[in-house]
Amino acid sequence: MGLLLILLLGGVVLAQERVIPPVEIRVGEGDLTTAVRLLILLTILALAPSILIMTTSFIRIVVVLSVLRQAIGIPQVPPNQVIVSLALFLTFFIMKPVFEEINTQALQPYIKEEIGDREFFARVSDSMKRFMARHTRKDTLEVFFEVGGVNKEERRNMEGPEDIPLSVLVPAFMVSELTTAFEIVFLIYIPFLIVDIVVASILISMGIIMIPPQLISLPFKIMLFVLANGWELVVLSLVRSYM
Q: I need a surface site. Which of 58, 77, 126, 156 has the fewest CB within 10 A?
């Protein structure tokens, strides 16, 4: 029985080898440009999440929303998927003018073959640089100029954000976004901290030391946040911080 099964499998393999012809993929000299474009496109798609995080408003938004859960006292609610999804939608909303500029000045001319590959990437890079430069702290940018080895003469010759290297502007922008995010978080954290302190003081004055103060203060913090339209205020503050 086993021998019969082996013979049947061998016959199927031989039949497949005879029916299916060998396939070869060749790239001729004339298709080299297309192959390079495809390679660049696949690389960009693979790095798209990192590019979205590094060069847009996503960092500030997701940090503020994540720490907001800690301030309220429910670190798992809303879930991470909800926080990331909300941060993505707010990022697209804030970055809409930049994306429209890229579409008008870079993508559409490139589709119509009015500009080449190098000009396309240069225009996209310039649009992103202008956005990042507007929201990058000058002192942070100076620090990364020194770290990147850009001397003062080269800085003076830079006429605008388009002349700043991405290797300097991107990390400076990310650090600036983190700094701004923590400043916003500090202001958000204070009201919830006051509620925790007041509840803890009342419980200690009443001699109740076996119940954690966070357990009593959590409903009051949620009620305070809901009555103050907290989500709307936080989202509006984040959007206005880029306007």
A: 156
Residue 123's Cα: distance from chain center in Å? 21
Q: Is the model's pLDDT at 27 over the cut of 50?
A: no
How many domains is the chain built from? 1
Cβ count within 10 A of residue 4? 8
* C-alpha neighbours within 13 Å on the C-beta side of residue 153: 0
pTM score of the predicted model: 0.73
> Using 50, 70 and 90 to split pLDDT, how confident is the model at 33?
low
In a domain, 209, yes or no: no
DSSP-assigned letter for residue 21? -
- What's the CA gap between 124 and 87, in Å, rounded? 23
> If pLDDT is split at 50, 70 and 90, which confidence band does 157 have?
low
Q: Quick check: is 153 in a domain?
A: yes
pLDDT at position 24 is: 40
Query: Do residues 172 and 140 make contact, with C-beta atoms less than 8 angstroms apart?
Result: yes
In this predicted model, what pLDDT tens digit does every residue of 161-208 receive, in sequence order? 777 777 888 888 899 999 988 988 888 888 888 887 887 787 777 777
Domain containing 183: what range? 46-187+230-240
Residue 161 covered by a domain: yes
Q: Determine, yes or no, domain membership for 39.
A: no
Q: Could you count the other beta carbons within 10 Å of the beta carbon of residue 88?
A: 15
